[in-house]
């Protein structure tokens, strides 16, 4: 899996997931349960992961819709 997006903005996460699901790209959200450790204040970012084969298409979809994509080699 490859990291596509890391943010603590829940609106961006929901938008990104909806876009990717609409394109048929499976996405997995990591660090969802970190809120238990942080007390629910939202300081730890959540990460959206995709399989490497889908990364380029997923990144293009997000960029085309105005979202920043994490660039990791």
From TrEMBL:
Classification via InterPro entries: DUF2007, N-reg_PII-like_a/b
DUF2007 domain residues: 1-64
SUPFAM superfamilies: GlnB-like (SSF54913)
Identification of the protein by name: Putative signal transducing protein
Organism expressing this protein natively: Lentibacter algarum
